[in-house]
Amino acid sequence: MLIPHPLLGPRDAQEFTYLGDAALMQRPDPQAGEAAFADYVFQRDNPAGVHRELWYHEYGDRSWLVVTRDTTTHEILGAKLARNVKMGLPE
Amino acid sequence: MNARLSGGLIDRSKPLSFTFNGRTLQGFEGDTLASALMANGIRLVARSFKYHRPRGIFSAGSEEPNALVTLGTGARAEPNTRATMIRLPEGLVARSQNHAGPLGFDLWSVNDLAAPFFAAGFYYKTFMWPRAFWEKLYEPAIRNAAGLGRLSMQPDPDSYDKGFLHCDLLVIGGGAAGLAAALTAGRSGAEVVLADEDFRLGGRLLAESDPLDAATAADWVAKAEAELRALPNVRVMPRTTVFGVYDHGVYGAVEEVSDLPGAPLRQTLWRITAKRAVMATGATERHIPFRDNDRPGILLAGAMRAYANRWAVTPGAGKVAIFTNNDDGHRTALDLQAKGVNLLGVIDSRAGATPFGDYPIFAGGRVTGTSGRKGLRAIRLSWNGREEELSCSALGVSGGWNPNVQLASHHRGRPKWDESRLAFLSHGGPEGLLPAGAAAGEGSTAQALASGQAAARAALEQLGTPAADTPLPQGEDRQIRTEAFWHVPGKGRAWVDFQNDVTVKDIKLAHQENMRSVEHLKRWTTLGMATDQGKTSNVTALAVMAELTGRSIPETGTTIFRPPYTPVSLAVLGGGDTGKDFRPTRLTPTHHWAKAQGAVFTEVGQWMRAQYYPQPGETHWRQSADREAMAVRSAVGLCDVTTLGKVDVQGPDAAEFLNRIYCNMMGTVKVGKARYGLMLREDGFAYDDGTCARMGEEHFVVTTTTANAGLVLRNMEFARQCLWPELDVTLISTTDAWAQIAVAGPRSRELLSRVVDDFDLSTEAFPFMGCAELTVCNGCPARLFRISFSGELAYELAVPARYGHALMQRLMEKGADLGVTPYGTEALSILRIEKGHAAGAELNGQTTAQMMGLGRMVSVKKDSIGAVMSRREGLAQDGRRLVGLQAVDPQQAIPAGAHLLATGAAQTMANDQGWVTSACYSPHVGGHIALGYLEQGEARMGETLVAANPLQDQQIPVRIVPAHFVDPEGDRLRD
Fold first, then answer.
1. Which stretches of chain B score pLDDT less than 50?
2. Among B3, B88, B222, B851, which one is least packed by beta carbons within 10 Å?
């Protein structure tokens, strides 16, 4: 698989570590309580189809990316720096 | 020996010797093992998988189901190689396989007599009762008799490698279509990789007698190859099989680099990333099942033609017949005749068939049986209402051609039936893979050339590269008419799948037993499995099944293929990552020094660390480790602790960032001080600890455990980029940049004072948990941390990694009179257990800060990763605590992992009170000690329990003590 790194161009998936659902970026407010954290820690979407996931370029520039991937075809619809996604910045 | 025919692409000036089953034989350069065996008149080359039927060479390519042989000897013996794909080298040693006793008299061929009992699914039906017999009797006996070749059971002595290639266009197959595609794309300037499984480019062109323009096909191929090889943007890779298509245009290929024993490199696994690919993989001929159609001497007609034209051999010394349902069979007849082969005639299943030349034709005829135990002697012909036996030494069978669409199925593309061509064509293949030539059903030379070029042009257009004008030669453009004729009905066994011994009867039986889907059929009969993956049988089986069910072929189903296209050895998939090369080995900066001291090393993750340093007279590791530990307690010891992960954290928000990473408060650490820190996972469990030293207002140096160095950085980067990108902080791993040496023991200050440049080491100036940047040994930059893992007065001194070796030497020299002693991981472990410091066994991912006695470290004044979840009910109520354990009999070792039980209690989970995490003999205590987690541990000091190890029936009485065996008040540290 090739991942289109927004800074480095297409990179082999072997250079990355996979984490999963990009919802992990939405850490609850510490005041939100245990239930909110239990949801955050233990509940994940695992859709058959288009999915936003976190990949870490561990054997590369150590960027965390949000990769939009179709889990049924492995088609990659886009990859953005997680940092920019979180801060609502453009590419 | 059969006489060689005239012509062929063999070099008669270069004879080669080889052996088959111990017999020395001759072949020529350009031969395959199969053609050389044929030239020597050897027809019986193998025994079949199930019935041990005599078998011969059936094909001339990678589809070969029968002629599997073992090559080489000793550790290099390689079973199940296809004789048709082996380029004959000088001195090749080949053996037949799958027989007991000599090949000509296989004792296991009794299976053939018992064939009625061995029908499809016989394993499931026969070996059912009595139940106990399966493991004891049936399975060992079956395993012994079944299977193909045998492994040498020795490590593979050969070398393998892997590599990466990138190109605009990957051309898979070097036949007419592939060469046309490669020439077109190559001349246009595209980066091209041309791969072919054969050792010679040309594909089917080499097997035919037709010219291209005025030249022979082989001459044109040679010219095309020379041009391609001269183009800098084209890489020509013969003996390279593209075996699989993976995501995003990644193709897997194996290159046979050398077949000579002891060559420096045998095979390379290539991962080819191609923007586009042309699937010019050709076609495989089908056969027509009839009674006893598996005798040596019965071949695919196209293969027979290839043997005659390319290798100048014929499989039979006497008359040769052809059985066909299409025009292509006649082409074989004509070519054989032209080579002077004695042709019996062509049996054409089509009633109105007419000959293409001067030979007898049996239009509407069928072959209904054969005879000849170890090779074909006669065929039974049913023609014009008569049955007659005709003497004949070889029979070519042609049932039409199947395009090789396997690669197009690797992404779940499902081939579609094309009624006009009577073949499956690729459908829904992977993006960017363009079929061409015979693989696309375009089988004549002219069609193949044109479609190869068209595919290349389409690819170039998609890539925005203008296509250069590439004239193609004139090739034959025969129209091959085929009439569906799938098998000759009748009595006896008619083989569909030779490799798995599956007959038409087996398919009928499976159908009667309600295996109605193709997938069930395959699994019940094993059709299409093993090394050939049904290349010569799948479609025929599907057609037979369609006939049985009265449905059309498309209604019956389709067949799908998975990688690999042909067998790939596990060795090449490993690509050299074996033994010590399986993963990188990391050496500490003092490794070579330690080696020179005679240190014994241990693997810690990827690192090699000194485990202990045996001295003369020490015969057991514990003597060394105890001596080293005592030296630290009484004088001073040195230990390389470079392997601990180090992360440099810098930026205006560094303090705030670390507050959120560590469960305890880090923002309040003063410049020049370090603090112990504990990291939690977001689910509230503890996962790593270390120190956090504040080198400047905006600069921290964080250490992690050796094992978690990578993970901690990953998690910190996650927090920095994905959770709190608004914090202005940067991270970098400096684990390999700094050599760090622990200098521990009451005389450590004295030793250090001899290497530091103008630095006040007094407790007043540099107290416990102090950190500083300084220079040592006259100007070497360094970092000093006053931290202790042993409980003694101790420091860790870091210098740039390249000075680590020299620093160790200098410290040893300067400390000689102080009794300086290097110590390894064993002593390190003893020292930290004696001090009650947690390590990997205490931080195993199932323990919490509270259990470690560090519950109050989890700050409630701030948010940090894991803080909320660490307070959840289940974790907060866990009463287990870290305690020390002392063996009641000091000489009795306490097994790590033992469970703690009340004295006399039954060893049940209900009675379980905790477990032992780490244990050692403590030279300081003078007895065996341990750490462990115990229910309500803090409140049970002095109580006696049993550490039970039911696996070895051990029950060791232990006393509960505080988890500090040394200096519980911590005075030594602060001295």
1. 1
2. B3
